[in-house]
Amino acid sequence: MKWYRKESLSLRQQNISRELWSRDEGDQNWDFPVDTYLGKKTDLLKLKKNVVGNIQETLEYFRKTRREVYSHESPQMVQQCPVCDASSEETNSRVEIYGAKYVQCQSCSHSYVINRPNPTAIHNFYLSDVNYAATYTDKSAAESRLQAIAVPWRDWMVQVFEKYYGRKPTKVLDVGSGAGHFVEACRRAGIQAEGIELSEASRKFSRDIWGFELDGNDYTQVYDKYLGYDVVTFWGLLEHTPNPKELLEVTKKIFDAGESGMVIAKLPRWDSLSAFIQNIKTDSIVRHLDPMGHISCYSDESAAELYFRSDFYPVAAWYYGMDVYEMLMQLGHQLEAYDVLTQTSGIQMHLQQRMDEAKLSDGLTIVGVPKNKYHNK
After folding, report:
1. Can you give the pLDDT at residue 276?
2. What pLDDT does residue 133 have?
3. CA end-to-end distance (rounded Å), the chain
4. Which residues is 23 bridged to in the sheet?
5. Residue 71 in 3-state DSSP?
6. What is the pLDDT of residue 9?
7. What is the pLDDT of residue 374?
8. Residue 306's pLDDT is what?
9. How far apart are CA 102 and CA 172, in angstroms?
10. Where are the alpha helices (H) located in 265-338, listed in sequence order?
11. C-alpha atoms less than 13 angstroms from C-alpha of 159 in its C-beta half-sphere
């Protein structure tokens, strides 16, 4: 099995292009035209101000808590690739971070932590760790974060859905909602939106700030409450779960009950500037290859293969990230001079746009439609 991308050799400065993603397996071939969006200009320092203001404290917290989990909990050795089910014996070792060992599948190029804490430890960490949710539940930054992140997500979702189905989505489910920013953004646009979130701190934030309740139940157990919804989003969830295919299989059932269907997932990328840097500097990581944040890190190939194996076909992709922020933060650690990060805000946004256009970004948002609703445009 192999995926290929057909695109121009010219690195043009543009925000959208049209590519052909192809999958070969034996003598079978599938071609998928994919609308590719590049960049999302964002004030990176403003988004991470609670981290930037306490860099050393945050770093020490991450080092301590991650090493504790990976040294004291009995690891659950992963036997198969979470995407293609290839044996974990058929992997290459890549990097060890805070005791977590990342390997890369030789079949689909997916990268994942092979010595995971057991599911209970992972669940309890996300459920109770207030610091983990701090970025998303900072009340002082709630509105600015909504405008900088959730509103562009919403507008892009509407644009992609309308282009494919010829109408705007009316019902959206956000799984792994965090503090509910995306749900709030959708509701402000007149879209019926609900969210599912396990974190108690995040659900409380949603109640206190936005005034609505997020569903605190297991998505795989309550999906039938959302049958017939137009869109299901995973803005940063499929990298946390040990079994991402299960979530997509449940999502397929939601769409089977309706006339439309579109799944959108934002995923961390292995082939990115952030990952390149962090493979070198393994002791100063507070995002991206954080083994309690991302137990999986996707290649473009493994993201497409995950969708394909779950009966979703890719129709759009959006590349953007925080690689410039990561690069400057690592330089700050190395030089013990954090003004390298804090005094360069004027160039960060523009440099990141160029990174995104070159597809070196640490984030990929991929859109798929159910196989039985797919039409090749």
Report:
1. 97
2. 52
3. 24
4. 3, 30
5. helix
6. 81
7. 95
8. 98
9. 34
10. 273-280, 300-309, 323-335
11. 13
**Residue for token digits 């969210």?**
195
Please report, for the chain, the start and end positions of each structural domain, with discontinuous segments joined by +.
17-162+268-373
d(CA 149, CA 87): 37
372 exposure class (CB count in 10 Å sphere: 0-12, 13-18, 19+): exposed
Give the angle subtended at the CA of 109 by the CAs of 104 and 113, to the nearest 5°: 30
Low-confidence ranges of the chain (pLDDT < 50): none
Handedness of CA 86, 279, 48, 328 (dihedral sign): negative
Among 68, 74, 46, 97, which Cα is nearest to 294's?
A: 97
pLDDT digits (tens, 9 = 90+) for 175-186: 999 999 999 999
Backbone angles phi, psi at 348, to 5 degrees: -60, -45
Handedness of CA 347, 350, 355, 356 (dihedral sign): positive
Element (H, E) at 74: none
Q: How many Cα atoms occupy the beta-carbon half-sphere of 92 within 13 Å?
A: 7
**DSSP bridge pairs for 195:** 174
| Residue that has been written with the tokens 């004291």 in this structure | 72
Identity of the residue numbered 309: R
Q: Which of 249, 235, 261, 244 is nearest to 177 (CA)?
A: 235
Distances in Å between the alpha carbon of 39 and those of 167, 264, 270, 361?
25, 17, 17, 9
